[in-house]
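EI: anyone free to look at a 338-residue chain?
SC: sure, send it
EI:
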Amino acid sequence: MQGGYRDDAAPQGGANPDAYALWHWHLMDVFVYFSHYLVTLPPPCWTNAAHLHGVKVLGTFITEWEKGAEICREMFATKDSAQMYAERLAELAAALGFDGWLINIEAKLDHQFIDNLKEFVNHLTKRMHAAVPGSLVIWYDAVTVNGNLSWQNKLSKYNKPFFDLCDGLFVNYTWKEKYPQDSAAAAGDRKYDVYMGIDVFGRKTYGGGQWNTNVALDLLKKDDISTAIFAPGWIYETNQLPDFQSAQNRWWGLVENSWGVLQSYPKELPFYSDFNQGHGYQVCYGGLQVSSDPWNNISCQSFQPMLKYTGDEVQTPVQTSIKLTTISRMSSSVVGAL
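SC: here you go
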């Protein structure tokens, strides 16, 4: 979001009570920490929060434009160099406790480098699987097997050679209505490894993104293929009304209505939750305020209330909301309404 490494840069958090946070972990399987740096390592706070909720976390390796092409020519000059850089990325993920990589080569390459690029993807995938069981390497739909920078917007013969060497394809987000079906057919029994991109900002994305992101989700659900939601920080960055908490819950509610719940937690019993979202205006303990200093630290996040009413439909469903300014046992309180 906004280039990455902002309020989440410091391992122990900061002093911004309005820092971006994500608490709808039950609606995703994988969280990618994305930025436009060459190597993006997920901050520990995001890895901690995601893993608590059973969600895998990927870092990003990206090369872009002419500078990116220059880097690629060095990295993929030989098979040995391609393998060496793959090993370093795998070592980083294993040492820092995250679950793999999104690989995004957005640079035109001479054809002579393609075989070594494929070896890089293949070797990285194998090393990640060996080092971190259950890990993922996802290829982004950008450079083709011919070396052209040509976004296919679906799984095609031009990006499938990379898909065949790793765990999945993140399809660029300007696809057309029939492209999900085409991709599912091309993937065969791996159709769920194809993640059709949706840009929440709505840049040429099917359905327009933003508050209509569910339009694309509904289509993908019908076509029985996976999705990758790009830039859900749109809600925060564009100051959607009436406030971030309300807008965030409303937007992810659209996702839930279209896509359903993907995670259930806690995974183990017993468990404890203080409903902490990872930011606040104070710190309380035992019902007493122990600090009036504002703060943010996603590592402090705990399970959020997920109450589904399953009884008499005549009754009003239970609704919950988090109050960050109310004194409670920790730094937030939950309010239930019937």
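EI: The first helix runs from residue 44 to 52.
SC: 👍
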